[in-house]
């Protein structure tokens, strides 16, 4: 069975309406039923996303941290006032590796859209692209991001293509968006033996990555914070630099306290 259908992405009234199954004359009679079914399906889908998100945030690796770093992250955490941090950038830019470390230092939970999608659908991104197509993957990516945006105190690593859909920005902009900007030649080195990024398979990776970046760069530039990454930088150094630049941004643009909106957290769990 199609992984996305199994997951229930197309459940409820959405597909029926799109394909005209609920016609105008029938709306009065059955809109309440369709609406209730759709609401139940969406609630069910949200629960499943949350379950996948909680397993995606497991990470037992502990990295040593200097006193100065600890202080810098504590300061940032206070300034962020529970606002989420989203990492965006090209495939291989280090969103997952750096994001995990950054979350640990900040004492935030770590969430990863790709990992959550894989857990939800019980299939790899490669299988999803092959069996359901990129459009279906993007639909699911948006649903997962929407759920993540309803959390606070989270560092969220996104898939490289998340910036493509304008709707995704309405979720990204609820937090602080940080672009890990890595030169294409470094991405090529990092992804030389990678088989998990379907958009790169069977292509000249350097050419493909350049084409993708040309299409997305303007979107990445919409990020609040731009972190230029060089080949020599370790993940620790990138996390430190991101912390410094995000702190500067937050000093100039203090966020409202997420704690003012307690309803944002855990509404489905309670
Ligand atoms: N600072 C770094 N230096 C060298 N290799 C890195 C660095 N950050 C990430 N990598 C490697 O690049 C690959 C992609 O990293 P990943 O964190 O999965 O990127 P993304 O989530 O942006 O796709 C992985 O093999 C990872 O080990
Ligand atoms: O750039 C993209 O369109 C994609 C990037 C991937 O995530 P990473 O950026 O983590 O590799 C993954 O979401 C999918 O293969 C599509």
UniProtKB/TrEMBL annotation:
The molecular function terms of the Gene Ontology recorded here are: ATP binding; shikimate kinase activity
As its record notes, the protein acts as a catalyst of: shikimate + ATP = 3-phosphoshikimate + ADP + H(+)
Alphabetically ordered keywords of this record: Amino-acid biosynthesis, Aromatic amino acid biosynthesis, ATP-binding, Kinase, Nucleotide-binding, Transferase
Q: Does the keyword Kinase apply?
A: yes
Stated EC number for the protein is 2.7.1.71
Its BP terms in the Gene Ontology are: amino acid biosynthetic process; aromatic amino acid family biosynthetic process; chorismate biosynthetic process
The record's listing under InterPro entries reads:
P-loop_NTPase (IPR027417), Shikimate/glucono_kinase (IPR031322), Shikimate_kinase/TSH1 (IPR000623), Shikimate_kinase_CS (IPR023000)
> Cellular component per GO?
cytosol
**Domain of life, source organism:** Eukaryota
Q: In which pathway does it act?
A: Metabolic intermediate biosynthesis; chorismate biosynthesis; chorismate from D-erythrose 4-phosphate and phosphoenolpyruvate: step 5/7
One Pfam family recorded for the sequence: SKI
PROSITE patterns registered for this protein in UniProt = SHIKIMATE_KINASE (PS01128)
Query: Which family is this protein grouped under?
Result: Belongs to the shikimate kinase family.
Name under which the protein is recorded: shikimate kinase
UniProt source species = Porphyridium purpureum (Red alga)
């Amino acid at each position: 069975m199609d992984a996305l259908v199994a997951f229930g992405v197309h459940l409820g009234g959405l597909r029926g309406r799109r394909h005209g199954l609920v016609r105008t004359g029938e709306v009065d009679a059955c809109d309440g039923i369709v609406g209730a079914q759709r609401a139940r399906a969406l609630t069910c889908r949200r629960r499943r996303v949350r379950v996948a998100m909680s397993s995606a945030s497991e990470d037992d690796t502990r990295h040593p941290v200097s006193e100065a770093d600890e202080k810098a992250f504590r300061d940032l955490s206070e300034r962020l006032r529970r606002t989420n941090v989203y990492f965006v950038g090209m495939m291989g830019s280090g969103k997952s590796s750096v994001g995990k470390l950054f979350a640990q230092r900040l004492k935030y939970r770590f969430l990863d859209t790709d990992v959550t999608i894989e857990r939800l659908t019980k299939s790899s991104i490669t299988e999803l692209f092959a069996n359901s197509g990129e459009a279906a993957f993007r639909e699911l990516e948006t649903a997962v991001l929407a759920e993540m945006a309803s959390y606070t105190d989270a560092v969220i690593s996104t898939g490289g293509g998340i910036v493509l859909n304008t709707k995704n920005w309405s979720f990204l902009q609820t937090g602080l968006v940080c672009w890990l900007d890595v030169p294409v030649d470094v991405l090529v080195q990092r992804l030389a033996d990678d088989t998990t990024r379907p958009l790169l398979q069977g292509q000249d990776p350097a050419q493909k990555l350049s084409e993708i970046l040309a299409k997305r760069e303007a979107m990445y530039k919409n990020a609040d914070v731009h972190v230029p990454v060089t080949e020599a930088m370790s993940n620790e150094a990138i996390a430190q630099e991101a912390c410094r630049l995000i702190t500067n941004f937050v000093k100039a643009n203090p966020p409202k306290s997420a704690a003012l909106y307690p309803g944002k957290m855990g509404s489905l769990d309670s």
